[in-house]
Specification:
Blueprint: E1 4-8, H1 13-24, E2 30-33, H2 44-49, E3 57-60, E4 63-66, H3 68-78, H4 89-105, H5 112-120, H6 126-147, H7 163-177, H8 186-197, H9 199-204
Parallel strand pairs: 1-2
Antiparallel strand pairs: 1-3, 3-4
Helix pairs in contact: 1-3, 1-7, 4-6, 4-7, 7-8
The chain binds glutathione.
Length: 220
Amino acid sequence: MASMVLYNYFRSSTSFRVRAALHIKGLDFEYKPINLLKGEQHSPEYRKLNPLGGLPTLVHNGKVMPDSAAILEYLEEIAPAPSLFPADPYLKARIRQVCEIVNSSMHPYGNLKITQYLGETLGFTQEQKDQWVQKWVTQGLEALEKTLPEFSGTYCFGDKITMADLYVYPQVITCQRFHVDLSKYPTVMKIYENCHKNEFFQKAHFSRQIDTPEELRAKN
Ligand SMILES: N[C@@H](CCC(=O)N[C@@H](CS)C(=O)NCC(=O)O)C(=O)O
């Protein structure tokens, strides 16, 4: 049995971040699906691992780690090569800034518990939910588009995958699900297209996981 167990869900963008890091670093892991739509994140057993009922959670040699940012920093410490950061402290700080734009100013607005509350408690239609997500994530997209041109090459920071790409790429997929107009963000979209071709991102992609439903599975 793998010493690493990842509780995750095929479509979760925060799960994607960790799957991609594990593939990039060549770390083997057992995939434990938690079906968010069936509410499995609220089960008492899962809540013992992750008090906010969020995905992902990593268990390594019996030690429990909730929260993608904490897991990614841990993986970087225990498997430093290949690194997800350049050596330069300034670039490291700017990469963390980009991660933070996605983590704090984009991801929460489209999170399931938020959109479920909008629908079930406030009576929002799907179109109103889309408008809500569009309004808030647009601020993040604008910040990314102002930040990334100075640093980007093939990917967010130069021509090597960094931590920033692990956050930006799956967030663009979430934006697409909520019909956000992405045509105004050419740098973000260039990076998205390049990440999409990367073998590790393809392996971690939502369409290729063991819990991906048949109709969403990649054909190749
Ligand atoms: N900041 C947390 C967020 C975790 C989170 O909320 N993940 C989403 C999936 S992308 C989730 O599990 N949502 C469950 C829900 O909303 O009920 C992390 O990065 O791990």
